[in-house]
Structure formats: C-alpha cells, structure tokens
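Hi support team,

I've been running sequence recovery on a batch of backbones for a student project. Most finish fine, but this one hangs at about 90% for roughly twenty minutes before it completes. I'm not sure whether the input is malformed or the queue is just slow. I've pasted the structure tokens below so you can try to reproduce it. Let me know if you need the job ID as well.

Thanks,
M.K.
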C-alpha cells in the first residue's frame, strides 16, 4: 500500500478506509445518524490531534491559505473533512459556533478530492448536490402577499428587495424592535456572505434593518477585526452568535463573536460590541468585551441586555453574559459598551456520575425596572471523552448592577442534553438541538408585575424527535419555579418542537413564545414557525398560531415550511437552523424572524441565495388577557387590548361552551352558552379596558369561560378557558 503523504506509516489512510466501511451512508438515514458517524470518527480525530506531522502540517498552513497547491496537499492528507474536524472539536471541547463559509468551502474541496469515501459517508445525493449544483431555475414573478391570513402579516424574505441580495446562508437570528418607534426593526444573523470582502473573510454578521415595520428591508454588516485593533493572520475572520438590544436613546447595539480561524481546528475567539445610531443602516465599533486571540480561550454563547428604566439606580447600564472555557461569566459597562467590568457568575450545585466535570453554557438575561438583573444558564456533566449528561438550568440575580450574583437556583433538570446522542431530531439531524432557555420579566406594574418567565426545549420520554417547548414562571423573584407547562398544543408524538425564544409584551404583561415546529410533517423533517401567548401570567397558554405562511417573496411560494434535514435536502447547511430565532413583542403585536429555506428548496436548487431570513408581523387584534393573577381567593383582573378608545367593552363569562349570536353584529358569535356579565368598562385612550373582582376561594377547581365583546364595532375577543387553582 502506498504510504500517506501526511504520515509515513500510512495509518491515517487505513483509518480513513476503515471509516468508509464502518459508517455506510445508510447510517445517516435515521435520527441517530450523526451520533453514529461521530462515534466512528472520534477515535480517528483524537489520534490525529496527537500526530506530530499533522500538527506540523496545520501550523505550516498559517499564512498559506491563499496558496491553492498547499491547500490541496493539506486536504489530500486529511482522513476526514475539515468540517468534520471542526464539528468534532466543538463536541470534544463543548462549545458551538457558526460553521464559517471558509470551512464549508474546504469541505467541498475535500469531498471532491475524496469522492469515493465521501459517497460512503454522506450518500450519493449529497455529494452530487455539493459538487454539481443543478442549473439556476428562475422563480415566479414576485411580490407581497395581499391581505392578511388571520392575524399574521405577509411572510417576508428580508433579502427580497436588496440589490445585490445577500448570498448563500443566513441563520441563527436575533431581532429587536425599537420600543420608542415600532417601525424600526433590526435583525442580525450568522452569514456566509462577506459582501464582496467587506464583511469579514467568510461573513461577519448580516444585519437587516427596516424603517417601515418590516415591509421593506436594508442590509448591512458590522465591523471586522481591524476596526477593533485585532489581527487575524490565518484562514480568515467570521462572526457568530448575534445579540441585539436598543437603548433608551434610539441606538441599537450588536454584540457578536468575532472569530479568527488560524486553521480549521484552531479557532481564536473575541467578543465585540458595535453600535448603530441610524437604525441599523451603518455600524461603528464600540468596544471589545474580551480578546482571546493570543490565549486561545474559548469565549462562547453571549447575550446582551440594557437597563432602559429611568427609575432604576443603574439606568443606562449595559450587561452581557457568556462562557469562557465552559465557565459562565458576566460583565457590565457604565459607558455604553466601550469598557467592561468582568464578574464570575456563581458555580452551580451540579452533580454527576464519577469521572464527569461541570460545563457551563447557554445564558440569557433580563432587566427588571428596579434595576435587578436576572440570568439563566445551563450546567451539564461531561466525561473527558464521550456524551454529556445531567444538563440543568439555573437562575441567579444581581441587585447591585452586576457587581455580585445570588446563589444559583435550579429551574429545570432536563432529559434533553447538549453534546449527547439524544439531541438530534430529524429536523436538525446534523447540528443537533439544545435545551437552552430564554428569560424575561413583567415590568408593567400590573397584576403580574415582577413575574419571571423562562422557556426551553425538553422531552418527557424518547429523544429529540419528541422534543416539546415549555414555559415556567416564578412569582417570588426567582426563589422558586413552577412546574413547566407545555406550550405547543399539537399532541403529536414523534414531532419535534425546539429552540424557543420568549419576550414579555410590556404593554400587557403577557409572555410571548416563538419556536421551530415539525408538527405539519409526518416525516418530522420540515418545520414551520409558531407563536403562542399567555394571558394568564404563565398559568395557561392560548391556542398556537402558525406564523410561517406561503409567500410570493420566496421561489417556492406555495409552501410554508423550511427543511434542513440532511437526507431530504441534500443542499442543507451544516449550521441548519442554528440555536435560536428572532422574536420581539410590544403594544399587542409580535415580530418573528427565522431561517428559511424556501428560496432554494425543494425547487430552485441552483439559486445563489440559499437560506434567507423569513419574517412576519403578528397583530393580536382585539384580545382578552386574564384572569390575572389567576388565583382563587384573590382580586383578579381581565383586560382587553386593541379596543376602540371610548367604546364600551362587555366582559362575559360562563361555564358551558356554545355558539351564541352577538346582537346587532351579523355573522359574529361568542363561544359561551350561559352568558353572564362580568363588567362593562369603556376603553381608554391606549385601547385597553379592564375589569376586576374578587374571586372567592371556593372557585378552586372550577373551569370558567371568559370572552369580551365591543358591540359598537362588533369586535369579539378570543375565548379564554381557565381552571382556577
């Protein structure tokens, strides 16, 4: 046998051949495909890292990535793709970043050079799609979808009107709406588009901005390394993990991981903050949170929050959280993100089997109007090699502007575990999913003021294909947490719901949750995007609302779903949907943004625009929230939103469901057969009307129906069915 160019013994070539025998393409056809492949590749990866000639070859590539001959020699020497090397590094070291376009391009070259092995690993369809994309198909004439479907506005492709449009992949999205001007919206995503070399080597971040409530969008990019005084001598720079927040003055801040790939397995980390003073159209460097280009520390999974509450003693302070080498950190800034004071978040009381160590990751933050900062983060237990277990979510708070933090409180002990074999639903069968949570707080001053809400992904039994979305609440400042309530209402086994996000609509105090949902696909491959709202302080959730709808702004205009399954969609991106979507909610509206594949799949596979950002605005319309706080033996409030100022609102209740015509309103009905009047207040100038009464303790266990009617305009609210605890 001819000896391998990398290692004279030829053992890596033998290992590569063994891989193709042990991991046939059929292994990728079920939900456990990725864990099986990883299990076979991991020993080879670990040996490769110890091989001195491989180390020398990688070091020798620094500064030579623009030499095609050197790159080809490097790729020919590898027993597996650079993409597999990076993904195995992330699994082994327990971090997750966006796979950059440069690594994906090297993966494509490796597949071409090792086509026989690649076909065994990935299957013929994937290799043929990767190496020979079908010719470009022209889409239908495009335009906005007329009118509204229910309360969901037209689905927008945010790249639709931009010239030139962003190319290739856009995914893992955050979205924020200016609380002082809801027409201003900014969304940021990981991206493969470097805008002709002006946006990092392989795409820094795609920043989309709208000044008309999301009807039309512009496209920009935050600064690259030199703007922050950073230098990357290797393969190139790219960005990951966007985090966004508006301040009280109308400026929007984008925090992101600015990464330097020296080689495919030597990624250097920094986290930076940029600011836009013009609604996201342009971005300027603001500050460097941390620069670990020299140390090699892993700085991962950051989130951002700003105290915008004038009554707070820390008004204007900026906060962030992230993990360094799987140890959770926080920091605060008193000069709007220029400089930062770092503070450790407290170690959690996590326990696990012998031989496992704690690993922190996946934080999120919210700021209360009294200046209290709330944070959640996960700890899981991992052996030095192999699958992790025992993932748990913990809560902590700071009442002194982020200078110190309370002892962690357990929120959820998960069945779903990151970096394991049970987190690969068919819909995200390569990247996998996580139980990471999102948190927000009610700052309305209303009946549930101060309530904390978290959402997360988990399953009660089975695995990733049975994942559901849950909400839990705390009414005592995070000291204790309610039993989780399932948010998705499909009641279908084997359909995955995952990666939710949560915000509280501060006009109503109602938590709103958005998530990825495979309920409409019996094969569990394609996902739609859903939204739900709780009008009862997190005690119950309204019927789910499907936000993704057919749209002429996508080439595949007749479908609503996206599909990143690696078998169904051979052109899938290795990042798939990432780890979160974009959601904001204010003034009885919600805005959702997600990774959308409809511009190139299932048809139009040669389109240079691949994964786009899908977007829709949701108007909740005439909406009844309550009872709040929802307890028996307590004063209770019901509120209508979207009412006509000055109009009388009739609040009704009963115990029997049935259709009853609304007098003077042809075609309008309520869903209560035995109607009783709860109250009839007039709506105020803000379009809200409220009524309150004392619910006796004897109501415990009763199921009651509530609804509201505005007779003068024939508006009928949603029907609330509620069982008093």
């Amino acid at each position: 046998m001819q000896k391998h160019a990398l290692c004279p013994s030829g053992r890596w070539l033998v290992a590569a051949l063994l891989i193709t025998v042990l991991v046939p393409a059929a292994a990728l056809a079920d939900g456990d495909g990725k864990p099986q492949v990883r299990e076979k590749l991991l020993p080879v990866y670990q040996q490769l890292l110890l091989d001195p000639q491989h180390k020398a070859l990688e070091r020798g590539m620094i500064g030579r990535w623009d030499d095609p001959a050197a790159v080809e020699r490097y790729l020919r020497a590898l027993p597996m793709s650079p993409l597999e090397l990076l993904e195995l590094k992330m699994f082994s070291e327990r971090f997750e970043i966006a796979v950059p376009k440069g690594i994906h391009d090297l993966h494509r070259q490796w597949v071409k050079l090792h086509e026989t092995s690649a076909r065994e690993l990935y299957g013929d369809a994937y290799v043929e799609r990767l190496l020979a994309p079908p010719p470009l198909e022209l889409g239908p004439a495009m335009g906005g979808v007329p009118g509204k479907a229910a309360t969901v506005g037209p689905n927008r492709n945010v790249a639709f009107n931009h010239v030139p449009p962003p190319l290739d992949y856009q995914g893992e999205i955050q979205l924020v709406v200016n609380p002082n001007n809801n027409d201003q919206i900014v969304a940021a995503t990981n991206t493969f588009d470097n805008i002709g070399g002006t946006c990092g080597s392989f795409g820094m971040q795609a920043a989309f901005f709208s000044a008309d409530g999301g009807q039309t969008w512009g496209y920009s990019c935050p600064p690259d390394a030199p703007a922050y005084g950073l230098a990357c001598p290797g393969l190139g720079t790219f960005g990951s993990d966007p985090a966004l927040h508006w301040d009280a003055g109308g400026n929007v801040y984008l925090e992101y991981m600015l990464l330097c790939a020296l080689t495919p397995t030597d990624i250097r980390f920094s986290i930076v903050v940029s600011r836009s003073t013009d609604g996201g159209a342009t971005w300027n460097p603001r500050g460097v949170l941390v620069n670990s280009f020299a140390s090699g520390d892993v700085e991962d999974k950051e989130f951002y929050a700003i105290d915008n509450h004038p009554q707070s003693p820390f008004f204007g302070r900026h906060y962030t959280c992230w993990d360094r080498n799987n140890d959770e950190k926080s920091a605060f800034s008193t000069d709007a993100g220029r400089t930062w004071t770092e503070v450790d978040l407290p170690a959690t009381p996590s326990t696990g089997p012998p031989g496992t160590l704690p690993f922190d990751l996946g934080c999120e933050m919210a700021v209360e109007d009294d200046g209290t900062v709330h944070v959640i983060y996960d700890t899981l237990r991992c052996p030095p090699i192999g699958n992790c277990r025992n993932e748990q979510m913990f809560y902590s708070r700071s009442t002194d502007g982020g200078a110190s933090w309370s002892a962690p409180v357990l929120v959820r002990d998960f069945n779903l575990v990151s970096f394991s074999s049970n987190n690969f639903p068919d819909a995200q069968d390569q990247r996998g999913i996580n139980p990471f949570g999102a948190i927000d707080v009610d700052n309305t001053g209303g009946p549930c003021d101060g309530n904390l809400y978290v959402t997360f992904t988990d399953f009660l039994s089975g695995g990733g294909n049975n994942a559901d979305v849950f909400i839990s609440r705390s009414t005592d400042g995070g000291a204790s947490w309610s039993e989780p309530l399932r948010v998705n209402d499909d009641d279908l086994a084997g359909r995955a719901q995952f990666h939710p996000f949560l915000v509280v609509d501060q006009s109503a105090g109602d938590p709103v949750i958005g998530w990825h949902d495979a309920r409409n696909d019996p094969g569990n491959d394609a996902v739609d995007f859903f939204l739900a709202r709780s009008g009862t302080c997190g005690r119950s959730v309204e019927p789910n609302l499907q936000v993704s709808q057919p749209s002429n702004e996508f080439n595949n205009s007749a479908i609503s779903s996206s599909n990143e399954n690696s078998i169904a969609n051979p052109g899938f991106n290795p990042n798939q949907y990432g780890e979160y979507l974009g959601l904001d909610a204010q003034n009885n509206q919600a805005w959702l943004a997600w990774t959308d594949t409809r511009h190139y799949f299932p048809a139009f596979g040669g389109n240079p625009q691949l994964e786009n950002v899908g977007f829709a605005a949701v108007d909740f319309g005439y909406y009844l929230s309550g009872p709040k706080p929802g307890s028996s033996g307590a004063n209770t409030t019901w509120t209508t939103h979207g009412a006509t100022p000055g109009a009388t609102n009739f609040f009704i209740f009963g115990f029997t469901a049935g259709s009853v015509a609304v007098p003077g309103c042809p075609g309008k009905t309520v869903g209560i057969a035995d109607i009783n009047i709860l109250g009839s207040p007039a709506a105020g100038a803000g379009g809200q009307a409220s009524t309150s009464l004392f619910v006796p303790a004897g109501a415990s266990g009763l199921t009651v129906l509530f609804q509201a009617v505005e007779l003068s305009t024939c508006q009928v609210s949603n029907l609330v069915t509620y069982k008093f605890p």
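--
Follow-up from support: It reproduced on our side and the slowdown came from queue contention, not your input. The chain has three domains: 11-131, 288-619, 623-723. No action needed from you.
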